[in-house]
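Design request, tokens follow.
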């Protein structure tokens, strides 16, 4: 089993223990003013232009605030997700964010969110910001097997003293054991994927086992982005999980599923397609889907 960082306060989970401390990589004031302005821009293209400019003169990690309230240390040269977050975080997966926000509005406390393939915590922190904005408590489970990404995620959790986030440093599959993973490294660390010729062997376990260890009896929303290994994880989970454990909302990376197997699997278990933004598909259980339609009609 991979090392787990729980949601309870413990060594390594406070801002003071980030090495170096958060703020050590703060942008020079003129660059930070320019970057902060992108968080209010209405043009995604304009934010990209600002990001490209800053990256030409700043060759270090950057300690910044995204989603209005979440502090992160971003590495701008080897992870596409971190680059996307750096300027204009309001443009990060807006359809998925809106669907999760609607789920937050319709769910009981605490809101339970599971982020599988959490990378450096983009979705986890996005949901945390939504919950803070709504004044709602939450339990956020982040699952990330890649050692480099997990360490960056742990630093971001610590920067926010986020005791509502639990980090599991483990991969998921349809059974317990180990699998080999390959990372795109300096090209894009976020593309770490299961591969027979992968350079690193990591522990894996079923999703249901992990949720039971976390003490969960329900999941309000699940996001999964595991670079093509979604089907075996979900097939085992949907087969074995009790009805009450099935997430009301699922945000699933599906661009690589040319045969439509993920659609067939989710539809067979009572989910409906809510939207297909960019590389993802948003699925919901029927009650959740109708609630989101009603919410959309009110806005």
């Amino acid at each position: 089993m991979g090392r787990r960082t729980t949601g309870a306060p413990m060594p390594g989970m406070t801002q003071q223990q980030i090495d170096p401390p958060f703020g050590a990589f703060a942008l020079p004031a003129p660059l930070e003013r320019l970057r902060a302005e992108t968080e209010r821009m209405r043009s995604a293209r304009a934010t990209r232009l600002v990001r490209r400019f800053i990256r030409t003169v700043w060759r270090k990690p950057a300690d910044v605030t995204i989603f209005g309230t979440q502090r992160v240390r971003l590495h701008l040269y080897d992870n596409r997700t971190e680059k996307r977050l750096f300027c204009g975080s309001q443009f990060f997966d807006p359809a998925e964010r809106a669907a999760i926000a609607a789920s937050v509005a319709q769910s009981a406390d605490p809101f339970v969110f599971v982020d599988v393939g959490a990378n450096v915590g983009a979705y986890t922190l996005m949901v945390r910001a939504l919950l803070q904005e709504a004044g709602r408590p939450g339990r956020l489970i982040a699952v990330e097997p890649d050692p480099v990404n997990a360490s960056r995620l742990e630093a971001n959790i610590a920067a926010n003293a986020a005791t509502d986030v639990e980090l599991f440093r483990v991969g998921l599959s349809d059974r317990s054991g180990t699998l080999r993973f390959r990372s795109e490294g300096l090209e894009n660390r976020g593309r770490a994927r299961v591969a027979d010729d992968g350079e690193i062997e990591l522990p894996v376990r079923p999703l249901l086992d992990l949720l039971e260890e976390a003490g969960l009896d329900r999941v309000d929303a699940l996001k999964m982005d595991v670079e093509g290994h979604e089907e075996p994880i979900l097939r085992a989970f949907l087969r074995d999980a009790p009805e009450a454990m099935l997430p009301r909302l699922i945000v699933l990376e599906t661009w690589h599923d040319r045969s439509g197997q993920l659609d067939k699997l989710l539809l067979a278990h009572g989910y409906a397609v809510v939207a297909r933004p960019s590389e993802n598909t948003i699925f919901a259980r029927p009650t959740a889907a109708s609630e989101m339609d009603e919410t959309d009609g009110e806005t």
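Comment from the thread starter after seeing the answer: thanks! The CA atoms of residues 109 and 136 lie 7 Å apart.
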